[in-house]
Amino acid sequence: MTAPLASFMTDAIGVVHLAGQLVRDPTAGVEAYFDANVALTDQVALAAVEAGVPIVVHASSRLVYPSTLTEAAREDRDARPDTPYGLSKSWAEDVLRVRTMDTRTSAVSLRIGQVTGGDHAGIGVIRSFLQQAEQTRTVRINGRGAALRDIVHVQDVARATMQALEYRGDWLAINVGGVAPVSIAQIAHAVAECAGVPGENVVHKETTAEDLSCYALDSERARAVLGWHATTSLNSIVAEVMAARDG
């Protein structure tokens, strides 16, 4: 089954495994993600081991952590997914760990924050706020906007990936977050400032279900193991995305 994949990996200095299924339907069960996120990772890991690849770097996700944490997630303590998608990414990590155990192939799973930057606003709240700012000159926040996110620039993620290719050792999970966790309210004000929307036009809408989710990442392990840290601030990310859209 892995022979065709292994043939492409001959003499490779490393494999970066980015393929997978993103969240499209929040109500979907884990079967919607199993083939792309778990079974494919199994095939990639087996092929890499068969081909004697020195290192596999796997793109995992912040969603291996639950939304109910009250402080930045740590790799050795907090991985307990609370969504089917997060569960599939956690299983993929386990598959990679097991398949590379006691082999010549090292492995890293990068638990990546909310990626944006360049000409892409990402699929989260930044895009929504940008659309509001452009279309209505108003940015609306549901509730207090206290939920926390780790926004990370795509170039910072690429740099972490390249540095992870140098890792040698047993499988390791490594968080890849932004410069600092930010609240939804902070994101709203950053978008408004970059879009020239007056502060009084950033408004809070009452909600019956306040979002208090926390997807903040402790990236100290990335600094210690990879010598990596994020360099691009939220304001710089938003300004860059807006400049690309205007261009």
Instruction: Give me the CATH superfamily.
Output: NAD(P)-binding Rossmann-like Domain
Q: Which CATH top level class fits?
A: Alpha Beta
Could you name the ranges where pLDDT drops below 50 across 5 or more consecutive residues?
A: none
CATH architecture tag = 3-Layer(aba) Sandwich
Q: First CA to last CA: what distance?
A: 46 Å
Q: What about the largest sheet?
A: 4 strands, parallel
Based on DSSP secondary structure assignment, what is the total number of beta strands? 11
Overall radius of gyration: 19 Å
Helicity, as a percent range: 40-55%
- Estimated structural class: alpha/beta
Order of helices and strands: HEHEHEEHEEEHEEHEEHH
**Proportion of strand residues:** 15-25%
pLDDT average, as an integer? 93
Strand ordering within the main sheet: 1-2-3-8
CATH topology: Rossmann fold
Number of helical stretches of at least 4 residues = 8
Give the CA-based shape: elongated
Overall tally of structural domains: 1
Task: Tell me about this structure.
The protein has a single domain (3-246), classed as NAD(P)-binding Rossmann-like Domain (Rossmann fold). It has eight helices and eleven strands. It has helices at 3-8, 31-51, 84-100, 125-136, 154-164, 184-195, 220-226, 234-246; strands spanning 15-17, 55-61, 106-112, 114-116, 139-142, 148-149, 151-153, 172-176, 182-183, 202-205, 214-215.
